[in-house]
Design goal:
With 341 residues, this protein is mainly α. It is elongated, with a radius of gyration of 27 Å.
């Protein structure tokens, strides 16, 4: 007990170079809980590297301690969103941590998206080094049979969350450009003088030039937003749907049960939202027929997007489809956007 209390004292003084050695002298059952709790409060990247190296030298199960520390940060009663993101830095020090990094990053992103913290979720995504992201994508495309079902589910979930965050960024860029970047037409003053008329003509020419540039940028950004949102809605096998893991005995570990509940909740919230965002892009850029055919994408059995809709969200979506159908009727076409015979 004296050794434990002295170790706690060293932790209170942040004696990084001494703590691992004293922890290694504690009873095995006390090492992980005590040291993990301390590590959860270490945020500086350099300090984390020191703790990791010394823990390995002292023979500690430092990998388990680090994973536990990251879990502690996101499992407290008053969870700090930014602290959750920073805690992922613990898992970026060594290539052997990749699996744990993906698992914990997924968990943090799910938690943040569930709270509507899209920007922080994007920051969590960026905690995964770019070269690691490249390897993950390559592994997913190869569909290697050497990976077990858990590994495949882990990579699949990570990529699903990644494409969603990329789609949100693309939509935000389009929205800002569409609603805030459009140039305003100059107004001719009442009873203008000759000088004012000449000045107005110059402003009109400048406006038309800016309008052309805006339309060009709008076309590019609308296509990018459309493409990214469709990646979410066409995600192979259904966005955030687990295909590889089965619950054979009807029993799940608490953490896995929570993971599946969070994924189900995110699907129910974000799939309908993504359809509405994509409809907004298509409808506001005059692509009414494409907006109407989104109904086919909802009903597609390959992605089971329809299963994510509740009654009210489906009503909201169908109301948007009706708006696009009315728009093509105003153009003299049939309700599906085709030319009338």
């Amino acid at each position: 007990r004296i050794l434990t209390e002295y170790t706690r004292y060293l932790m209170s003084r942040d004696m990084l170079h001494l703590i691992p050695w004293y922890v290694s002298k504690l009873e095995q059952k006390n090492q992980v809980p005590l040291h993990s709790a301390y590590l959860s409060g270490v945020e500086r990247h350099e300090d984390q590297a020191v703790c990791l190296q010394l823990g390995l030298e002292c023979g500690l199960d430092i990998s388990a301690m680090i994973v536990s520390a990251v879990s502690i940060v996101r499992s407290g009663e008053a969870v700090d969103n930014e602290a959750m993101v920073k805690s992922l830095g613990w898992l970026t020090h060594h290539p052997s941590q990749v699996r744990d990094l993906l698992y914990q990053t997924n968990a943090v992103m799910r938690r943040l998206l569930g709270r509507g913290q899209v920007e922080l979720a994007a920051q969590a995504l960026c905690q995964v080094p770019r070269d690691t992201q490249t390897k993950v994508v390559a592994a997913w495309r190869s569909q290697s049979t050497e990976e077990d079902s858990m590994e495949r589910a882990l990579v699949r979930e990570y990529l699903a969350l990644k494409v969603y965050l990329e789609a949100q960024e693309a939509f935000s860029d389009w929205f800002d450009h569409f609603h805030r970047g459009q140039p305003k037409r100059p107004v001719m003053p009442e009873n203008p003088t000759f000088t004012e008329k000449v000045a107005h003509e110059q402003r009109e020419k400048q406006y038309l030039a800016e309008l052309d540039r805006w339309r060009g940028g709008q076309l590019i950004q609308s296509r990018q937003a459309e493409g990214k949102l469709k990646e979410v809605l066409n995600f192979s096998g259904g966005w955030l749907l687990d295909q590889d893991l089965e619950d054979d005995d009807g029993m799940l570990e608490e953490e896995e049960a929570q993971r599946r509940d969070e994924m189900s909740s995110l699907r129910a919230e974000l799939i309908p939202q993504s359809f509405l965002l994509l409809h907004s892009v298509l409808h506001n850029t005059g692509q009414y027929q494409a907006a109407i055919t989104l109904a086919n994408l909802v009903a597609d059995e390959k992605t089971a997007n329809y299963a994510a809709f509740g009654k009210e969200k489906m009503k909201q979506f169908l109301a948007k489809i009706r708006e696009s159908s009315m728009a093509v009727l105003d153009e003299g076409k049939d309700p599906w956007g085709f030319d009338k015979p």
